[in-house]
Amino acid sequence: MTTVAITINGQKHGPSEIRDDLTMNDYLRENLGMTGTKFGCGAAQCLSCAIIVDDPDGTSHTSPTCIVPAVHFNGQSIRTVEGHAKDGQLSVLQKAFIAHFAFQCGYCTAGFLNEAQVLLERLAKTPLPRANLETTITEALDGHLCRCTGYVKYHEAVRDVILADAARYLV
Amino acid sequence: MQPSRRQFVKWATATGITLSLSPMATAASVPFDAHEILPGEGAFNPAVAGAGRIDGVAKVTGAKLYASDFRASDMPGWPATTSHALLVRAPDATHVYIGMDLARLSGSLKPSMVVTAAEIDSIGLTVPAFYAGDLFCPVGKTPLYLGQPVALLIFETFDAYDRARLALRDNTFVKFGEETGPVSMPPFAAFRFTRVAGPAPDAPDVYSPIMAGWVSPGKIQNTELPVWAPFAKETTKPYGEAARHGEAIRAELSADNPNMLVLDRQFDTQSIDPMFLEPEAGLGWYDTNSRQLELVLGVQSPYDTTESIAELLGKAKAPFKPAGIHSNYAHMGGGFGGRDHTPFVLYIALAAMFFPGRPVRLAHDRYQQFQGGIKRHAIKMHSRIGVDRKTGKILAFAADHVLDGGGLANFSASVATVAANAALGIYDVPRADVTTVALHSRGVTAGSMRGYGTLQTMSAIEVLVDEAAVALKLDPIDFRRRNALKQDGRTLAGNRYIVSVRTPEILDKLERHTIWQTRADQKSRAKPGFLVGTGVACATKDYGTGADCSNGRVELGPDGRIAIWNDHTEMGTGVSTALANRVALHLGGISDQVAVAQVGAFDALGMITSGDSYAMDQKTQDSLEKNPRWVPAISSATSASIGAHVGTHAPAEAAKVIFQFGLWPAALLLWKIAPTDPRAKEFAKAQWKNGELTMAGLAPLPLKMLAATAHARGLVTGAVAHSFSRWEWSRARFLLSGVQYRAEIDALAVRRGNGPFQRLDRVSVKFPPTDNNRIGTSYTSMCGTAVRVEIEKATGILKIAKAYSVLECGQALVPDLVLGQAQGGFAMGVGYALLESLPPFEGGPGNGQWNLDRYLIARGSDLPLHDLEIEMLPPLPDEKPKGIAEVVMIPVVPALLNAIHDATGRRFQSLPVTQSLLKGALA
After folding, report:
1. In terms of CB atoms within 10 Å, which of A85, B272, B485, B824 comes out highest?
2. Judgement on whether residues B109 and B228 belong to the same structural domain of the protein
3. Closest Cα partner for A73 from A55, A49, A95?
4. How far is B82 from chain A (nearest CA, A)?
5. Mind listing the domains of chain A with CATH numbers?
6. Contacts of residue B43 in chain A, CB cutoff 8 Å?
7. Does the pTM of the predicted model rise above 0.90?
8. Could A148 and B334 be called an inter-chain contact, meaning their C-beta atoms sit closer than 8 Å?
9. ipTM exceeding 0.95?
10. Interchain CB contact of B773 with A (< 8 Å)
């Protein structure tokens, strides 16, 4: 057992004693009841379980939760799908996912949302040549599996968010 | 329109168990329905402006929506703590099962309850016929199939469950003894479909299933496969007749006829997993005080699921027989057929009954989902096609299909017949003979999955005709055009489609597309080390099953708000959004409360049913229909691409009633048009524009004003309707507001103002004739695909450079949803053609060791994300919605195979065509 404290969507959870082999996915879903983060494969292959980890250097990355113990996140700050909307207002990306009919069953949506959000934040710091946009989106999202949509509308939604604020994301 | 209004007790079944859907709300907790009825009264509704789905906000905010999201603490009135069950399955089906060694689960890991065949043996369960086969393999027997359950282990805490699950991961604790070989069982079904056309296109058929009925050879002798040739003394007369014609067709194909090209080919398809992203999960709680079994489930077949659980427990001894069952059905994280009549739900009910008083969650992980989830049938197809060398017309076709049904019957018989009836694809073939048999095997149970046999057999025919065209030096599209079934042509069963047949337009579109037009140029310009090829294919897929039900309840509030209840389920296809849009065509506004997966919200209709609608004779139906409450079936699963056509039908009919008997008379009052004025009957001329009812020369009337007037004047403000389709809809007349109202429904209830719903006895009814059960399919939609592939010779890596699919769906209720289905179908087709495969037996998913690290589905980088063009043909005048969720996947597979042939010169006759196969072929 390890004492763990994790900041989730800006809110501190813990310190609390948890099993060393409890996955982060189960910590979120079973211990905290935060079921927006999904369980898909338990093998870090589909990434429906991915969350955002905010690193101390100001950058962020996504991480699967289904195979990573919760204790690994001790002291870290993470974001989940439940944290994207602020004060009842959906994020630009959430709005774009809806407007593009990007998802169908929606079970992979949290993972795509987190991955695309990290991409946006990365591009805001390191803008991209327009010519590389589609390839960059494909590379960023390619780890995420979706069985319903064929991915097209997810990609279009992310692309359109970037193109709509080209001065911010593109060089 | 509050959820509390939905409190009711549904129907008492023969089991004596009451089935209900009453929410268990308390002041402090959120009712289950509040999670599931979307977007919720007054909530932001993206669908209003056509800019999103009804469930859009819930899905981007991580709302609790799926069965796997719910725990006991989320359920009002339930105990707060959730226990957890583990379903242990057999990884071996050739040795005697001798028990489990649970020694590794000591101390706190020890399960609180172990349920095996021994525990259920004496309690009087009644396994519904559909799921026939031991629920648990008893000790001393060889498992019927790989992945057959052997035990439920129930743990009080999540920690104990989770640690035990990991400790048991390798399956070696399930012990086996003597080798017996697999259990042998008779085939699940065997049929023969034979048609001999008349001497001229307009002449009646000489023989067809429509004329003579569907025939089966029956059990002729003890062999693995049926003996299809006729033995007059050993088979029934109807079968002998089919066989006589069939064997004549085969003799024609075998004859040495220089004028006829005959191709004789084998085409094999593989087993795959639906791989919906949410593994099956659910909750059960047997409340020992009320003796009520509470359930949270996610299935495509809610009505049948509730009834099956009632049947399972209906004759059980105390304390295993609940007094009532209350089911909550959640949205699903994908379905694709794999959640249609899944046996998984039976084990949730058992877990709850064996751990009374404590809520139990049963959830597959992905290994377990691969091990126990429903699979697609692998089919071996031997086909022969005869083509007139002069005319390029197909003269005859014969095929023999062998389906691997796996361990339980499930839908194997149905898949086999659908597959057989699809064997001719889009073509008009005057003489055809198709045998099909669905075998039991020790493989994981196969059942419903997107494409449902059609995917397999149409892939085979589309590859075959492509080869025939090449052999005859005919353009593949021209060859298809010559042979395509016309609007009035007859299918293999001998019936005509009753919906539009738009194959010629689709073929024209394919032919004119740049992918096809530039195929030679692109091939010649292939980069060094690469091969380029182009392929096309065209498919048609039935939607509907021949016994489809639609239940709809629509209520209009005095503020103009619309609420919709429907029995179809939301697995991602967007049926809830389609419902809102179809109802809006009649009521002028988008609902902000759409409740799907309802099985009891139509209680006001007081329907009863009896008999088997598939097998019923006309005399029986004529007799039964005299009872104004009788219908051939009450509710059906959301499957067979029926969401748009069937699912939305009854709600649309209910909305029409509200319009004609509520909003229209309200409009007349507001416009001060007297009932005697000729304009009073011209409701069909009225149109909704921007939420206002418009009529030439009259002031537009907002929906809100009309709704308020309808309520104030006691006009019709709510309607509940049911209809049944056996390849055509029921039709009935009802006396309503002094007129005989005729509609494509068979049960109706209405409310006036805020009053209660009152059932209206139908004045007359015309159910579809029982002879329609001989139809193979009557509703169909078409899709064509063209693809260009680039294959690297050294590695076998295939890239889809460009793709185009053109489809027709009648009236598209929500075009973006149709587009999404087509894009998703394309991806699933790519996976099936190039990536996905499950070994059938040992080494396959039944061993519990499969996950997405070895089962590959299409990723974004496998697809032409920016070079996939989808075109929808505009609907024909007054054309209703057609189902397309399956057909969009089908032509993708043979188009890819045909493109691979064009690139490599090699015809692959089995799936999938993997990179390593390509590399080997090109070496």
Report:
1. B824
2. no
3. A55
4. 10
5. 2-83 (3.10.20.30), 92-169 (1.10.150.120)
6. none
7. yes
8. yes
9. yes
10. no
